[in-house]
C-alpha cells in the first residue's frame, strides 16, 4: 500500500512544489515547532523562508508576480505545513483568503495595487468578520460603515479574533452599511482597511489592543481590532460597490473551509505518524504495543480516517477550482476532517500513554492545536446547518 495522503493526477509542477515544501517542513519547521510554540514566539525565520519559496504568492496569477497555482495546490501545501506546525498554516491562511477575495471580487485597480505586493509577502492579509458578540451569526454584525457627504465612509465598531491581526497590513473587514435593501445580507460591505503592522494605533482610528492568550495555535497572534471613526475612501470597498460584502465573504469562507480541512488533515497525518512510530518502540507485556490488537486496530482506524479526510478535502479543493459554489462540499470536508483529526490526535495521545501528557512530546501540542479545527471557519454545528438545509432543497418532495 502507498503511504498516507497521496494525491492522484497531480502535475509535475504540483509534485515539485509539494516536495520542496515537504523538505522545508521536515528541515525547518518540525525541529523548531515545539520550542517556538511553547514560548509563543512568532516564527519569523520560517515566514521568511516561505516568502523565499514563493508560498505567499502561490495562488496569485503570474501577471501579478505569483505562481498562479490552483486551490488544490494551495490546500496540499497547507496540509504539508500543518503537518509540521499548524500555527504556520494560520499565518498564510488569512493572506490567501484576502488574495482570493481580491482576485475574484476586486476592481482592476485594487488587484494592481495589492496583488503584486501580496505575492512577495510585503503586504499581508487578515480577514475580519467576527465580533465580540458574534461568530456563527454573521447577520448580527454591529460594526458600521457610514457614508459621509464627500462620498467616503467612517467605520466604527469592534472586531474580534483576527488571526494575523498585528502582522497584517491589509484587512478585509465586513461591516454593516445602509443600502436600503430589504435583507440584512444586502446591507453589508467589505472594506479593504490598510494599517501598519504592530500593536496600538496602527492607522487613523484603527487600534490593535494586544494578543489574545490562547490554549494552542501559539506563535501566530490572534487579536481584537477597534475602529473609531476610521475614515476610508469609497474606492477601498472591495469591488467598488457597497452591499456585496456578505456574499463576497461567504465565497472567501469556502476557501477558508477547504483550508481548515487541509490543516486538520495535516494534524491528523502527523498524529498518525507519531502514534505509529511510538507504538513500535514502546513495549508492554513482552512485546511492542503495536502487536496488541487493540493498538493495531486503533492505528488502522486512524489511518482510515486520515485517508477519508484527505480524499474529501482534495475533492472540495478540486471543485472550488472549477469556480462553482460548493458550500456543501466545503462544509462536509471541513466537518469530517476536523472531527476525524480530533479523534485521530486523541487516539495517538492514548497510544503515547503517560508520555503524551508530557510537554516533551509533540502529541501534547497537537492535542491543543486540534481543538481549533472544530471551531475555525464555522463550527461543526454550522457546517451541519449548511449541509442539512441544502439537502432539503435537493431532496425536496
Ligand atoms: C483562534 C481563533 C482564530 C480565529 N480567527 C478568526 C479570523 O481570522 N477572522 C474571523 O472573522 N474570525 C476568526 N475566528 C472566529 C471564529 O470564526 C468563531 O469563533 C467561530 O465562527 C464560532 O463563532 P463564536 O465563537 O461566536 O461561537 P457562537 O457562534 O457563539 O457559537 C457558540 C456555540 O453555539 C453553536 N451554535 C451557534 N449557532 C448555532 C445554530 N444555529 N445551531 C446549532 N448550534 C449553533 C456553535 O456551534 C457553538 O457550539 C477565530 C476564532 C479563534 C478561536
TrEMBL record:
Residues 126-229 form the Acyl-CoA oxidase/dehydrogenase middle domain. Pfam families: Acyl-CoA_dh_1, Acyl-CoA_dh_M, Acyl-CoA_dh_N. Residues 243-392 form the Acyl-CoA dehydrogenase/oxidase C-terminal domain. Belongs to the acyl-CoA dehydrogenase family. The keyword Amino-acid biosynthesis does not apply. The keyword Flavoprotein applies. It comes from Nocardioides phosphati. Its cofactor is FAD. SUPFAM superfamilies: Acyl-CoA dehydrogenase C-terminal domain-like, Acyl-CoA dehydrogenase NM domain-like. Keywords: FAD, Flavoprotein, Oxidoreductase. This is Acyl-CoA dehydrogenase. Residues 11-122 form the Acyl-CoA dehydrogenase/oxidase N-terminal domain.
Amino acid at each position: 500500500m502507498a503511504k498516507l495522503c497521496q494525491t492522484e493526477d497531480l502535475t509535475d509542477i504540483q509534485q515539485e512544489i509539494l516536495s520542496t515544501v515537504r523538505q522545508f517542513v521536515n528541515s525547518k519547521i518540525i525541529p523548531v515547532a515545539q520550542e517556538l510554540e511553547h514560548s509563543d514566539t512568532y516564527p519569523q525565520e520560517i515566514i521568511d523562508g516561505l516568502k523565499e519559496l514563493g508560498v505567499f504568492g502561490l495562488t496569485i496569477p503570474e501577471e501579478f508576480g505569483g505562481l498562479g497555482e490552483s486551490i488544490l495546490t494551495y490546500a496540499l501545501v497547507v496540509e504539508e505545513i500543518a503537518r509540521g506546525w499548524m500555527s504556520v498554516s494560520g499565518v498564510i491562511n488569512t493572506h490567501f483568503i484576502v488574495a482570493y477575495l481580491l482576485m475574484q471580487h476586486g476592481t482592476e485597480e485594487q488587484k494592481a495595487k495589492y496583488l503584486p505586493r501580496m505575492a512577495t509577502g510585503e503586504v499581508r492579509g487578515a480577514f475580519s468578520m467576527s465580533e465580540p458578540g458574534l461568530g456563527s451569526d454573521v447577520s448580527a454584525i454591529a460594526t458600521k460603515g457610514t457614508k459621509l457627504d464627500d462620498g467616503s465612509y467612517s467605520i466604527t465598531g469592534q472586531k474580534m479574533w483576527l488571526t494575523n491581526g498585528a502582522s497584517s497590513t491589509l484587512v478585509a473587514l465586513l461591516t454593516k452599511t445602509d443600502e436600503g435593501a430589504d435583507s440584512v445580507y444586502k446591507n453589508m460591505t467589505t472594506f479593504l482597511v490598510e494599517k501598519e503592522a504592530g500593536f496600538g494605533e496602527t492607522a487613523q482610528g484603527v487600534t490593535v489592543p494586544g494578543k489574545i492568550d490562547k490554549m494552542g495555535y501559539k506563535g501566530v497572534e490572534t487579536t481584537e481590532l477597534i475602529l473609531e471613526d476610521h475614515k476610508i475612501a469609497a474606492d477601498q470597498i472591495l469591488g467598488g460597490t457597497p452591499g456585496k460584502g456578505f456574499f463576497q465573504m461567504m465565497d472567501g469562507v469556502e476557501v477558508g473551509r477547504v483550508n481548515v480541512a487541509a490543516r486538520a488533515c495535516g494534524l491528523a497525518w502527523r498524529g498518525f505518524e507519531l502514534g505509529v512510530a511510538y507504538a513500535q518502540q514502546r513495549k508492554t507485556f513482552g512485546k511492542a504495543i503495536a502487536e496488541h490488537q487493540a493498538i493495531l486496530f486503533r492505528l488502522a482506524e486512524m489511518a482510515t480516517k486520515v485517508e477519508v479526510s484527505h480524499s474529501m478535502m482534495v475533492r472540495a479543493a478540486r471543485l472550488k477550482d472549477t469556480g462553482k459554489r460548493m458550500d456543501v462540499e466545503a462544509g462536509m470536508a471541513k466537518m469530517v476532517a476536523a472531527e476525524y483529526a480530533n479523534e485521530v490526535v486523541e487516539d495517538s495521545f492514548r497510544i503515547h500513554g503517560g508520555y503524551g501528557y508530557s510537554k516533551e512530546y509533540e502529541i501534547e501540542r497537537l492535542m491543543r492545536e486540534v481543538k481549533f479545527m472544530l471551531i475555525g471557519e464555522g463550527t461543526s454545528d454550522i457546517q451541519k446547518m449548511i449541509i442539512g438545509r441544502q439537502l432539503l432543497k435537493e431532496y425536496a418532495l
